[in-house]
Amino acid sequence: MDFTDLEYTKELYGIMSSELSDGRYKHVVSVARTAYILCRQLSLDDEMTEKTVKAGFLHDITREKSMSEQLEMCKKYGITLTDNELKSPQVLHQLTGAEYIKEKYPSYSDEVILDIIRKHCTGGVDMSTAEKIVFLSDYIEPERYHEACKRLHDFYFFDTNGENLENHLDKAVFLAYDNTVGHLKEKGAFIHPATLSGWDQMRQIIK
Ligand SMILES: [Fe+2]
Ligand SMILES: [Fe+2]
Fold first, then answer.
1. Percentage of residues in the chain with pLDDT exceeding 90?
2. C-alpha to C-alpha distance for 62 and 45, rounded to whole angstroms
């Protein structure tokens, strides 16, 4: 079935356009569309595909809230902030997003969907295939204009060399981490430990 014909996405277009600016709305739709393509390629079943696509739509639902709103939500939802979160406040939306959905859109409050959202930004060890799909789709969706994103998009879609698709996904996920870590190191910015451990684990796996 075509992405645009999926019945379970219909309501999500309205929800996300009410929550986000036009630019970021296009991004989340593009992530969901890319995630759908990856789910089909990797033969996820219909139920897991539906959850993955919904998470693709919803992943950045609190991305445009200000820092004071993020902190306010953390307080309200009882999210304990570690030093790691305080040193990388740009990742807070993966935690507040999941809780915001539970409160405001309870029909999407499903642990598989929420866990995908909780990891989409930092990544982490032992990600499921669905979690890897949204993590990668967030990076390679075609609305991204950064060179590194475009290069990884082309690597994932056009450079498979007949390789097993799960392995190819792992390689692409590793490269997404590698680009992010390289970029943050270059800037001298703090790197969230979940990103470092996810990066390290993928490096061992693809060896
Ligand atoms: Fe995000
Ligand atoms: Fe995103």
1. 97
2. 28
d(CA 31, ligand 2 centre) in Å = 7
Contact 134, 59 (CB under 8 A): yes
pLDDT class for 19, splitting at 50, 70, 90? very high
Ligand 2 midpoint to CA 34 (Å): 12
| Segment 38-79, tens digit of pLDDT | 999 999 999 999 999 999 999 999 999 999 999 999 999 999
CATH number belonging to the domain at 3-63+77-206, selected among 3.40.630.30, 1.10.3980.10, 1.10.3210.10, 3.30.460.10:
1.10.3210.10
Distance between Cα 98 and ligand 1 center (Å):
11
Q: What are the CA-CA distances from residue 172 to residues 37, 160, 176 (Å)?
A: 15, 10, 6
